[in-house]
Amino acid sequence: MQIYWTKINKIIEETPEVKTYMLDIPEGFTWEEGAHTHLALEGFNAGDEPNKSLVRHMSISTLPKENSIGITTRIRELCSEFKSILKTLKVGDQVALFKIHSNVPLKRENKNIYLLSSGVGLATFRPIVLEYFERADNVNQIQSLNIDSSKDYLFTDIFTSAPDKNFTAQFVDNRKDYYDEVKKFASDKEGLFYIVGSDEFLLQNIEVLREQGVKTEQILLDKRERALPKFLSPELSV
């Protein structure tokens, strides 16, 4: 396993609780839209066994053309050991990256795409939308729906409806409005539904979509293949 050590070059305060850590791109580090990586703090590999409390699975919220690896995360006042350390880091400090993979690249199948996310899960979709803006080939349109009870909505510079680009962005702060919109989306029997959020959020969305007749093959999750049966197994169908 290759470990890429790199430095923080900028810290962006997106909202009072959400920060984006911009990292230098190490030589040989490549990724595509919808990718995630493991972010590790100094000392994680100091012992005989890796210290897993110093490692987190994180989406990459930038595209390579932005010349930095963006890691966007919510850090609350009461937080884990990992995030307690992360929030003390400054520009110039070192972190490690390893195991890059993309479960949700932009599919170009001449279909409508629906991006369903909760809170900071929107970070996974930011590079997908940027890639679509750059090249919309074989994508009919994209509609993004994000629920965030804090009302401190993320990336509103990008997630703004643009009819000329066949792109719609919606933010809601409550479950009723959110699932009312999801049900409307589900009337599209050919659409592709990308979902990012907590496991509970994924299961709730899948249940609503399936109740509306959406098929398993239309649902894309930011999960490795071995984890998909937990969410998309036939026993969970309604």
Describe this structure in words.
The model has no long low-confidence stretch (mean pLDDT 94). The protein is built from five helices and eleven strands. It has two domains: 4-102, Translation factors (Elongation Factor Tu (Ef-tu), domain 3), CATH 2.40.30.10; 111-236, 3-Layer(aba) Sandwich (Rossmann fold), CATH 3.40.50. The radius of gyration is 18 Å and the shape is globular. It has helices at 81-86, 122-134, 175-185, 199-211, 228-232; strands spanning 4-13, 18-23, 35-41, 55-59, 69-74, 94-102, 111-118, 139-147, 167-172, 192-196, 219-221. With 238 residues, the chain is α/β, with parallel strands linked by helices. Helix 4 (199-211) links the parallel strand 10 and strand 11 (219-221). Strands 4-3-6-1-2-5 form a six-stranded antiparallel sheet. Helix content is 20%, strand content 31%. The longest helix has 13 residues, at 122-134. The protein starts with a strand and ends in a 6-residue tail after the last helix.
